[in-house]
Amino acid sequence: MTAADWDVLVARLRAPDQADAFRTAAAKFVDGDRLEAVCAVANLSACVADDGEIDEARVASDSAARLGLRRHAVGY
Asked: What is the structure's pLDDT at 76?
């Protein structure tokens, strides 16, 4: 599977609004290549609050776990 094929598949599987909301929230905690890496492997379902919206605290926790960062390093 090429990178382009993968991008098409991911776009079909992830709701654009949630993916965009995740990226916006994650950008508050990580940037550059780290942001791209976190967004590429993000488990959006783990970051969704009960109301169906992306929860910033869950994004911070998920991002920190994936990057091996301590909690205070991502600002929460």
From this structure: 46
Q: How many domains does the chain have?
A: 1
pTM for this prediction: 0.66
Domain extent at residue 66: 3-74
Mean pLDDT for 20-27 is 92
Residue the block writes with tokens 């993968």:
6
User: If you ran DSSP here, which 8-state letter would residue 30 be given?
Assistant: -
Neighbouring residues of 71: CB distance < 8 A, sequence distance ≥ 6: 61, 64
Strands (E) across the chain are located at none
Q: CA torsion 59→12→4→53, rounded to 10°?
A: -20
